[in-house]
Design goal:
alpha/beta; 7 strands
């Protein structure tokens, strides 16, 4: 896997910052997850209800935010992450999931190929472009033939208002942040052998406003915008449901 992503959360300090800053109770990421969570749970529950048994793999499960929420909805669940420090925290949150540390590109046999559902959050945007496709191809091979689904997000849409804020930070502070456009995301999934069957958008207000006194108003606007389909393509965080093509 790409060296940057592989080493990012290897230290306990980095993981602690992720948990206590990135996902602090009033942070932008936590607020967006509160909007995503009901939809993710409904997607998993509806899909699992069509099967006698359902197996779920949460790839790049991190500290178990997604896995702990969805594990009660499926028969069996597995979390996989490259960071032992992340998995350590996930183990304190997840009650019935198997947790595995490892690199799926170096060792595809870390998990078997009989999953009905695969989730993948906050990985695709952070990984290098070829790594995204390589990982998605491996994940596709882990689904049960054409009957499985992939639920994945890209949390930096270049068509969103966030893009303007990032341009300012690039010009003024020299910061570089990853972004992908909806067409780029579509091409990525297609290159990996997936077909998008639906997608959702979360957050039309730039994250910067969540760090100001306008945060309550920003969240109220984003709560309303979540249910307006025409605003999906300009939302910051895009959630995709895909099936093998």
């Amino acid at each position: 896997m790409s060296s940057g992503y592989a080493t990012r959360f290897q230290t306990e300090e980095a993981v602690k910052e992720y948990e206590q800053v990135e996902y602090s109770p009033n942070s932008y990421s936590a607020k967006i997850w509160s909007l995503q969570k009901p939809i993710v749970l409904r997607l998993i529950e509806d899909f699992a209800s069509t099967r006698k048994e359902s197996r779920l793999l949460d790839f790049a499960c991190g500290t178990g935010r997604i896995l702990s929420a969805v594990e009660p909805l499926v028969s069996e669940s597995v979390g996989l992450d490259i960071s032992p420090s992340m998995i350590k925290i996930a183990a304190s949150k997840c009650k019935r999931s198997e947790l595995i540390v490892g690199d799926i590109l170096q060792n595809p046999d870390l998990v078997d190929d009989q999953f009905d559902i695969i989730t993948c959050f906050r990985f695709l945007l952070n990984a290098e472009s070829q790594t995204r496709i390589d990982v998605l191809r491996v994940l596709r091979s882990k689904l049960v033939s054409r009957n499985g689904i992939l639920v994945a997000n890209v949390h930096g849409n270049s068509w969103s208002a966030r893009h303007l804020a990032l341009l300012y930070r690039k010009w003024v502070k020299g910061e570089i942040h990853n972004e992908m456009s909806p067409p780029e995301i579509t091409r990525m999934f297609h290159a990996a052998g997936f077909k998008i069957v639906r997608y959702y958008g979360f957050g039309i207000i730039p994250p910067t406003l969540y760090r100001t006194p306008l945060a309550p108003m920003a969240f109220k606007v984003d709560s309303i915008a979540r249910d307006i389909n025409i605003l999906r393509s300009i939302s910051v965080d895009l959630l995709y449901v895909c099936v093998p093509a």
